[in-house]
Amino acid sequence: MYVDSKPNPKAQHLSDEHAAIVEATLPAVGENIETIAKTFYGKMFGAHPELLRDTFNRGNQKQGAQQKALAASVATFATQLVDPNAPDPVMMLDRIAHKHVSLGITADQYKIVYENLMAAIAEVLGDAVTEEVAEAWSAVYWLMADVLIKHEEILYASDGVEPGDVFRDVTVVDKQELPGGVTTYTLEGDLTKPLPGQYTSVGVRLADGARQLRQYSIIKGAAGRYRIAVQNDGEVSTHLRENVNVGDTIQATLAAGDLVLRDGESPVVLISSGIGSTPMVGMLAYMVRTGAERKVTYLHADESEETWAQQVDAKALVRELGGVTAKAHFRKEGALIDVSEYDVAGADVYLCGGNAFLQALRADLAALPAEKAPADVHYELFNPNDWLVN
């Protein structure tokens, strides 16, 4: 599921009265937003336990990652509604929409979120939430929801499916152990053709009866066949490694994700860390398959050569492409990626890794002088987070 168009949050406007109230109360909401988010999820899962059991990832909830992601998204959207100089949250909303369609989220579920979020705001802020304040923040929520719902409908339509109809029964036809505690699975079923860099949500039924979901980047994909790499962490990954073998049936969703390799002639720089190599290997495979004639730089960071799970695939693809500047950096040897040492001028840069890695690389790229700066920087996240939203 993918379209070139993006959500358009700048087309949304609050009334003057609501804007004044939101601007006045934004500091108080911002200071308490994580408490509000935590209270909200507690209320929503209390009223709808099936959402935690069958839709939301329990690991992310336990770590608080999902709550932080909600806090950042609501505060960021509200800010851009009242501050014309605030950053445009278009990329944040595009990323959220892709995550939603990969989980089969539908428009009717936004009402559940609204009711519990407003109840949480009222509980945390108490008497400060007058009828007028509640009405203003309700307007913020539904403006944001409207942007997301419309974009999600477009994404579903891009694969010719009804909203929410993204889960498919798939058969595991290959399972291979790689270094660094990584296992690859090849899945076959009624799957649409993915774009290079996209992911699929894999659903498994755990021992306690919960249907848990986790998203995995597609290393290599075609219509009817996805190959994914799974690092052994979390409930879903552990269940896959210990219980799912060749011949078994699980669920996977149609491919989604906004980190997609753009076709063209501009230079491409792929930078990854750890299992973040997965979408980059997918992009390398795509360029080999299509005979791309672009200047390519591939940089990877890992603990050591022994933990670099996809080095065999990556090195083979680099050889097939030919002329690629490729370098592995191993922390055990004290080697870190210094983007100033490489030619990224005018390039499309793609990043994937942990939060600290992405934060450092984005800062390093932003610090480059104008004549050495990339044309654009695209990135994918391992987990929900509260800082990397724009």
TrEMBL record:
Top-level lineage group: Bacteria
PROSITE patterns linked to this entry: FAD_FR, GLOBIN
EC number: 1.14.12.17
Keyword vocabulary terms for this entry: Dioxygenase, Heme, Iron, Metal-binding, NAD, Oxidoreductase, Oxygen transport, Transport
Reactions this protein catalyses: 2 nitric oxide + NADPH + 2 O2 = 2 nitrate + NADP(+) + H(+); 2 nitric oxide + NADH + 2 O2 = 2 nitrate + NAD(+) + H(+)
InterPro entries: FAD-bd_FR_type (IPR017927), FNR_nucleotide-bd (IPR039261), Globin (IPR000971), Globin-like_sf (IPR009050), Globin/Proto (IPR012292), Riboflavin_synthase-like_b-brl (IPR017938)
Domain Globin: 13-153
CDD domains: FHb-globin_2 (cd14782)
Similarity-based family: In the C-terminal section; belongs to the flavoprotein pyridine nucleotide cytochrome reductase family.
Name of protein: nitric oxide dioxygenase
Organism expressing this protein natively: Corynebacterium guangdongense
Taxonomy of the source species: Bacteria, Bacillati, Actinomycetota, Actinomycetes, Mycobacteriales
